[in-house]
Design a protein that fits this description.
With 261 residues, this protein is mainly α. The chain is 80% helix and 0% strand.
Length: 261
């Protein structure tokens, strides 16, 4: 039941069944898994304090002779995700790295894939672009063994982010185009709109301002008509930068004002 409700993002029900799991767990390993699920449910519900409490209980419940490395790996990964959500990135990285080491000791095929992706994205946020790209490329080597086109496209997009931000926007654009092709087949309009914004940034860094403007306006148009407004704000910010760079100060001021409103 717990897995069923996870697939539907029904986290209140996940929490309910995690608590039931804890009540009937036959041994300390399964009890620890129950607390892990409780913590993950609380994290998804936005209660990181309760999540931390559950994760610590899970950690203290693991027996000293435990041989289930998948449990320890998953627990450290979830600690990392929680600290990442709290913007404690260095602490999150420590947990992700521990999780990765434990995952190497499991028999689970591709068990280290989530940690590699998490470390790739986390290092991207911390401005460690070379390190980010290394983790993402290692993850990309594992992805062909799975039928996971969304994860593949997202990995390629993140590689594009790392390349662009490390000063290689032309290579970044190539990755963005690859990701767009896959997301288009998946009919992921929101992801494609976001890629328009990322392409705008790359074109701006290359000094190709007309292309940058076109991409930013494409993103703005889609989110204005179909989105939540998140990409609208990002588009305003990007258009401000484009028009500032091209000395179109009236337009730059207009979009800056919209962004700050």
């Amino acid at each position: 039941f717990d897995l069923h409700y996870w697939s539907y993002s029904n986290y209140d029900s996940c929490l309910y069944y995690a608590n039931k799991w804890i009540e009937v767990a036959p041994d300390s390993v399964w009890l620890s898994y129950g607390y892990l699920e409780r913590g993950a449910s609380y994290a998804e519900l936005g209660n990181n304090l309760k999540a931390l409490e559950a994760y610590n209980t899970a950690l203290n419940t693991i027996p000293s002779d435990n041989t289930d490395m998948d449990l320890v790996s998953s627990l450290n990964n979830n600690f990392g995700m929680m600290y990442s959500a709290e913007h404690e990135y260095e602490k999150a990285a420590e947990y992700f790295e521990k999780a990765l080491e434990y995952a190497k000791q499991t028999r689970l095929l591709g068990g280290n894939l989530p940690m590699l992706n998490n470390l790739g994205v986390l290092n991207l946020w911390m401005g460690k672009y070379e390190k980010s790209l290394d983790y993402l490329q290692t993850a990309a080597e594992l992805l062909p063994a799975y039928d996971r086109p969304w994860a593949t496209a997202n990995n390629i997009q993140n590689q594009g982010n790392a390349l662009t931000l490390m000063g290689k926007p032309r290579e970044g654009l190539s990755k963005y185009e690859q990701a767009t092709v896959i997301f288009d087949k998946l009919k992921e309009a929101h992801k494609i709109a976001g890629l328009h914004r990322l392409k705008a940034e790359a074109y701006r860094m290359l000094g190709e301002y007309r292309n940058a403007e076109h991409e930013a306006l494409q993103c703005l148009k889609w989110d204005s008509e179909n989105g939540s407004g998140e990409l609208v704000k990002e588009s305003y910010q990007e258009l401000f930068k484009i028009y500032s760079a091209t000395r179109q100060f009236d337009k730059a001021f207009d979009y800056q004002s919209r962004y700050l409103a």
